[in-house]
Amino acid sequence: MLGILRQRAIDGGLAASTLRKTRFALVSARSYAAGAKEMTVRDALNSAIDEEMSADPKVFVMGEEVGQYQGAYKITKGLLEKYGPERVYDTPITEAGFTGIGVGAAYAGLKPVVEFMTFNFSMQAIDHIINSAAKSNYMSAGQINVPIVFRGPNGAAAGVGAQHSQCYAAWYASVPGLKVLAPYSAEDARGLLKAAIRDPDPVVFLENELLYGESFPISEEALDSSFCLPIGKAKIEREGKDVTIVTFSKMVGFALKAAEKLAEEGISAEVINLRSIRPLDRATINASVRKTSRLVTVEEGFPQHGVCAEICASVVEESFSYLDAPVERIAGADVPMPYAANLERLALPQIEDIVRASKRACYRSK
Amino acid sequence: MATAFAPTKLTATVPLHGSQENRLLLPIRLAPPSSSFLGSTRSLTVNSLRRLNHSNATRRSPVVAVQEVVKEKQSANNSLLITKEEGLELYEDMILGRSFEDMCAQMYYRGKMFGFVHLYNGQEAVSTGFIKLLTKSDSVVSTYRDHVHALSKGVSARAVMSELFGKVTGCCRGQGGSMHMFSKEHNMLGGFAFIGEGIPVATGAAFSSKYRREVLKQDCEDVTVAFFGDGTCNNGQFYECLNMAALYKLPIIFVVENNLWAIGMSHLRATSDPEIWKKGPAFGMPGVHVDGMDVLKVREVAKEAVTRARRGEGPTLVECETYRFRGHSLADPDELRDAAEKAKYAARDPIAALKKYLIENKLVKEAELKSIEKKIDELVEEAVEFADASPQPGRSQLLENVFADPKGFGIGPDGRYRCEDPKFTEGTAQV
């Protein structure tokens, strides 16, 4: 599935891997834990951007605080020192302006990686993401493609309030012409970001602030500089036979923990990490539901017209006769995110909610 | 308003480099206010008129209104501004723009064209004046009023007409329409329906010129010209881009086609300070005001602005005072504009003005101009016939070109499309 070509010599491949080892040693002392290697999502993203920038001089980074400040969340750490100010641009606070500039540069053949400090700020630039980037290849009948990546943290963080906590997966995934990716682990982050930067179309890359510091085991294959994950393919994180739990981003971690709790009670849950919201991997989801006959979908965003709604509709349309229980949908509360810590916890799906919904789907509880 | 600031503060140096510097430091003398700049007098109060007059007289600024420069140049050298060939080229381009737009109106009323159609009649001097100085690799970004920009840039009349008819032989195979004229070959980067949307895109194209030159070390002197209207100058994106273009010294020219009306909203009712060219120096670039009904004046300013940009000295803001003879679009009844104002501008028709200049200066004979007009008429008619005869797009074209990569599943590490990998399973929507 991954199609990795480890032996392939690419431009600077050897140099990149030497550099990588040196940099990892400096940046993350935990990278070389005894036995399996681990990497934080932050380092994974940083290494992905670094490698793509060194492989292709047309790739450049722009956004607020990406240069001298080393990145608002330190994702672009070290890039300014390495590539200089002509390839790492600290922009003024003008989302509409710099996003449009990125799109215009992509029209002319460059490959910008535009960072939004959070995707909430992308609302100020959404005209350019949708009207000038997503629709251009279609409107120009294939003459002008837009190889741009819009990335940044999406969804709820901790106690940041209503205007900094919205999840934009459903908004962007409803637009034809955009690709929308949502990584979970470090391997996802590396592979998907590299695929996104190489992709000839506009990609919205939704990260999660709370995942940045989390460490995940990472294979040698994933550390190779030509490693790429396919866009539009979901990953089955855990196999099971009783209920399918479909989710993306931070909720994958919650779903995996819920699956362990369910296993103690004798329910074997299959956890699917979507990775790609558009195109949605309906084949994998439906194949899994046909195997288990039960579906639970989880997301952090608002429930109405959300990603889960689309998954449920897809499953009901395509695998109706295989379902043994109504489809279950868990989403964030239908309110702007409150500030108080206990209210925030109530507004977001928790592990207990996933366990409860799965049991309900298995008719083990009310 | 300017009078809120001491005049000397405005001259606080906007550093202007280049050999033309001394010319640009001459004190400004705008044309007297009775000239059309102030537009419909109905919406102008006496007070604001007085304030504008006062500011004109006392302000000194490092930019200069080009009418004066052109007149000085002419009287100084007593030579002509253009050669015969250039004159014929400009005339032909403007006649093409005018005939094409008139034909669009006819076709619309006959039902062959549909949707939104925004015509450019009256503003031809701006398009011709700027675009005829550009090379094929320079870029142009426009708004929904983009037919004539596309034609001036080199897109064939056939391709534009077919696009308007929604036929597969159009420049965007019928998928873009009137407001979305794209041509990669001619570097016409659209055609944007949202006002202000094209400005950051143009700034990005200029950014890529600079990037290619400085980072990729390619030989790139391309400039970008962004056309937009007076209404756009109240939009936030305009200011964001003025800031960044000046900050990064991008090779871009911001051309304001100030035709005084944004659909039915008069520029004077919508803008606190209607003199748009003044907003350039506030961001550190020269702001120039030019008579947009005179193609020769526009061309002189354009030459300077384009040369500045190619030399790497950064952006310029050019405000062209112009007028659209028709309504905002073919669906606009155009009731709010004063008949007297329309008549005043009709008398300043740029095509008639150029014709007069060419004949009075004995550059061409009338017969040559007539033959150009005939040639263009035939060209436009032929374009209509071609468009009529072309087929509509096939059904399969509906789902094509959403993504550059055929099915949207990305590119594998070996550089080929993933969907071509035999082990790949796709599973997304089929229609």
Describe what you observe in this structure.
- The complex is a heterodimer of chains A (366) and B (431).
- Chain A is an alpha/beta fold and 366 residues long.
- In chain A, 38% of the residues lie in helices and 16% in strands.
- Chain A has helices at residues 13-27, 41-55, 79-83, 95-107, 126-134, 136-139, 169-173, 186-198, 220-223, 250-264, 282-292, 307-319, 341-347, 351-361; strands at 37-40, 59-63, 88-90, 111-115, 149-153, 179-181, 203-207, 215-218, 235-238, 243-247, 269-273, 276-278, 295-298, 328-330.
- In chain A, strands 3-2-4-5-7-6-12 form a 7-stranded mixed β-sheet, sandwiched between helices. A 5-stranded mixed β-sheet of chain A has the order 9-11-10-13-14, sandwiched between helices.
- In chain A, strand 6, helix 8 and strand 7 form a beta-alpha-beta unit.
- In chain A, helix 2 (41-55) runs parallel beside helix 8, helix 10 crosses helix 14 and helix 11 crosses helix 12.
- Chain A is globular and about 60 Å long.
- In chain A, 58% of the residues are buried.
- Chain B is 42% helix and 8% strand.
- A 5-stranded parallel β-sheet of chain B has the order 1-4-5-9-8, sandwiched between helices. In chain B, strands 2-3 form a two-stranded antiparallel ribbon. In chain B, strands 6-7 form a two-stranded antiparallel sheet.
- In chain B, strand 4 (224-229), helix 10 (236-248) and strand 5 form a beta-alpha-beta unit.
- The relative contact order of chain B is 0.14.
- Mean pLDDT of chain B is 83; it is low at 1-69 and 427-431.
- The interface between A and B is large, with 66 and 62 residues.
